[in-house]
Amino acid sequence: MKRIRGNILALILTIIFILPFIYPNNNFRHILILFLIFAGLGESWNIITGFAGQTSFGHAAFFGIGAYTSTILFYKFHLSPWLGMIFGAILASIISAVVSYPCFKLKGHYFAIATLAIAEIIKQIFVSWDYVEGATGISIPIVEEGIINFQFHSSKIPYFLIAYVFFVAVVFAAKFIEKNRMGYYLKAIRDSHEAAEALGINTTLYKLYAMMVSAAFTAMLGTLYAQYILYIDPFMVFPLEISMKIVLLTVLGGIGSIYGPIIGAAVLIPLSEYTRILLGGTGKGIDLIIFGALIVIIACYEPNGIIGLLKQKSRKGETVIEKAKALS
């Protein structure tokens, strides 16, 4: 079974990789890049929420911190966005540890509300902060394209390849955590906080590790998004909408599963982009209405999302085969 799952993941990653070369359409490539960014964000969010059971509604804060750190360092000090990305990941990790430590004393919905409030506070700070150009935002200066400057003007393929590498890195990092001691500890904390502490697990420490890793990956993807769009403002990189998209796509696909964010992003991102193209603006929110309806329908049958439905089908298939073998 493990080999089959490994082969399925390898097949999915291979298909994603060859898609922009089979269908060389710029709009399609743009959707693929956004798909990789949001699937990566879902995988990052899964580490703290899917594995550790700490629901965060504030991951847009780490996304924005990553985007702003690299952009400010490049805009004001001409520092490479790659170095800015590293600084952004470190800064997001430190901030996540500082704000999460007291919040971990809260349980259930109170923790989720606290993360939501912190994200909104950070957004308002950036809106009012003149040094980062406040609500006006920053247009990233156009420079010669190339990997060092992290800018590509003639083709979207380099952005796709970078997004793909980041996405694969986040997937394998999440998979590594899931299959090692830290993942087992986090799942124990998720299933029963009191039982995990009774077993001697330092619950606060491991939740802190999970939040810092999750925030670091989220910030790195924020830098990638900023370099791809070449413009940022607080309403673009700190909005509640980004946090909600990360939560919704992972819930639809399946929380706690490596495949969950991939499935959810494969539904939400094309839906968002094509409704935006057809209806203009932000698609009049039609994408979130359809997406919300899908979540309600699927949650009625299987709370673990689409991946839960697929597992149900797989188990039924195995049972039928076993019965057939027993009768033969």
From TrEMBL:
GO molecular function term, any single one: branched-chain amino acid transmembrane transporter activity
InterPro entries for the chain: ABC_transp_permease (IPR001851), LivM-like (IPR043428)
Segments crossing the lipid bilayer: 7-24, 30-48, 60-77, 83-104, 157-177, 208-226, 246-269, 289-310
Top-level taxonomic group: Bacteria
Gene designation: livH_3
Topology term for the membrane: Multi-pass membrane protein
Name of the molecule in the record: High-affinity branched-chain amino acid transport system permease protein LivH
Origin species: Thermovenabulum gondwanense
A GO-annotated cellular component: plasma membrane
UniProt-annotated location(s): Cell membrane
Keyword field: Cell membrane, Membrane, Transmembrane, Transmembrane helix
